[in-house]
Write a structure and sequence with these properties.
Layout lengths: L2 H14 L3 H25 L5 H16 L22 H24 L4 H33 L3 H4 L1
Helix pairs in contact: 1-2, 1-4, 2-3, 2-4, 3-5, 4-5
Length: 156
């Protein structure tokens, strides 16, 4: 499945989740998807994005690592369904939106955290989501810069 479709599925699932465990599962799924997209961009994406893509992979991995891994049935891990990146710019735009929504959902959980462990888990996950989103925005900036470069033979 392509990245944009998986991201949109994650956004719908996050928006439709209600209880804290369900939200935390969707946050974990979103971070795992960001990690997979970062990895795919690092290997197959434009060369100027590879460093930031590796950083995204690491940060999103940290975002998964600070959360308790959900028990998912075979086939439920969206990141494992990623078969193609598609348009890198569109995928990054959608991923940036998803990560912003993840941060908002985590803030909501943090405010209503039932215990200190959940509170700190969410705080660390907020940092990871925010830093991941920063990487996505930097990659979008680099793509925009690349699109505005006029080859010398055309400028002339």
């Amino acid at each position: 499945m392509d990245a944009v479709r998986l991201i949109l599925t994650s956004r719908r699932a996050l928006a439709g989740s209600g209880e804290i465990p369900e939200i935390m599962t969707e946050v974990w799924q979103a971070q795992a998807l960001a990690q997979a997209i970062g990895s795919r961009l690092a290997v197959f994406g434009p060369p100027e994005l590879r460093g930031e893509a590796l950083g995204l992979t690491e940060l999103a991995g940290r975002g998964c690592g600070v959360l308790d891994a959900p028990e998912l049935a075979p086939g439920e891990l969206r990141a494992a369904q990623l078969t193609e990146l598609g348009d890198a710019r569109q995928a990054l735009l959608c991923l940036g939106s998803l990560l912003g929504e993840v941060g908002i959902a985590l803030v909501g959980i943090t405010c209503a955290a039932p215990d200190e462990g959940t509170y700190w888990q969410c705080m660390e996950a907020i940092d990871a989501a925010d830093e991941s989103r920063d990487r996505v925005l930097e990659m979008l900036r680099k793509l925009a810069d690349r699109e505005h470069v006029v080859p010398a033979r055309e400028a002339g």
